[in-house]
């Protein structure tokens, strides 16, 4: 196993073993496009260099089963399509991250965001299927919205949910467009553009289906000094 002071060169991957020191968060494994053998090798390298916990995103069920057969011990969340090696830490963020989904079809992306945030040491509360097609469902959760430190709003179709939430919340809102929708949704492009054009202040946007990015950004906000609940 070769490499410099900050990189473990496995041939098929260069593991950044000093990322936690630079950014506060150790490297995360993106599972899509990697074989189970490659993922197992990266996990082994991380653990051997002192990384207590490892998050594997975009891990499908078949690959997760293969990874377990290789002897890699981890907990698998099939909805979030994520694996966690070493368990989840206790929350040490300032307050609560609220994850809202417009519809049940947005659950995989929302659960990826929620699990990422929990992995990074946050208390997370999730409320599902509160899209604007039935606005009363969202308004029933005004109390949760008002007490959140950060909100992640996940929506496909026309992507209207974050704009409405942005008009109700006093905290940052991270909008996540999903590829859920019919033809004119253009696999999430319509929702993405709607969120980028939101008239509500305090709304930022991550890429289509990027639950991981939303969970990571929410964690950064929830760990800022001086934002205690």
TrEMBL record:
The UniProt entry, under SUPFAM superfamilies, shows: N5-CAIR mutase (phosphoribosylaminoimidazole carboxylase, PurE)
Q: Which InterPro entries match?
A: P2CMN_synthase_LarB (IPR039476), PurE_dom (IPR000031)
Residue span, PurE domain: 95-227
Record's SMART domains?
Answer: AIRC
**Gene Ontology biological process terms, A to Z:** 'de novo' IMP biosynthetic process
Named from the GO MF annotations, one term is: hydrolase activity
Which Pfam families does the record associate with it? AIRC (PF00731)
Tell me which PANTHER family the record gives. PHOSPHORIBOSYLAMINOIMIDAZOLE CARBOXYLASE-RELATED, SLL1489 PROTEIN
| Protein name (record) | Nickel pincer cofactor biosynthesis protein LarB
């Amino acid at each position: 196993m070769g490499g410099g002071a900050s990189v473990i060169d496995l041939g098929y991957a260069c593991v950044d073993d000093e990322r936690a020191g630079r950014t506060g968060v150790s490297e995360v494994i993106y599972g899509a496009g990697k074989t189970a053998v490659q993922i197992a090798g990266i996990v082994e390298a991380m653990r051997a260099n002192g990384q207590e916990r490892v998050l594997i995103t975009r891990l499908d069920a078949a690959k997760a089963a293969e990874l377990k057969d290789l002897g890699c011990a981890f907990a698998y969340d099939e909805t979030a399509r994520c694996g966690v090696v070493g368990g989840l830490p206790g929350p040490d963020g300032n307050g609560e991250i609220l994850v809202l989904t417009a519809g049940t079809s947005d659950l995989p992306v929302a659960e990826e965001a929620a699990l990422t945030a929990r992995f990074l040491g946050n208390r997370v509360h999730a409320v599902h299927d509160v899209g604007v097609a039935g606005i009363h469902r969202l308004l029933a959760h005004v109390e949760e919205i008002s007490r959140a430190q950060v909100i992640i709003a996940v929506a496909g179709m026309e992507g209207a949910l974050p704009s409405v939430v942005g008009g109700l919340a006093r905290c940052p809102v991270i909008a996540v467009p999903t590829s859920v929708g019919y033809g004119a949704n253009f696999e999430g492009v319509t929702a993405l553009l709607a969120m980028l054009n939101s008239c509500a202040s305090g709304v930022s946007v991550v890429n289509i289906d990027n639950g991981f990015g939303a969970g990571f950004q929410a964690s950064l906000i929830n760990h800022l000094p001086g934002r205690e609940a």
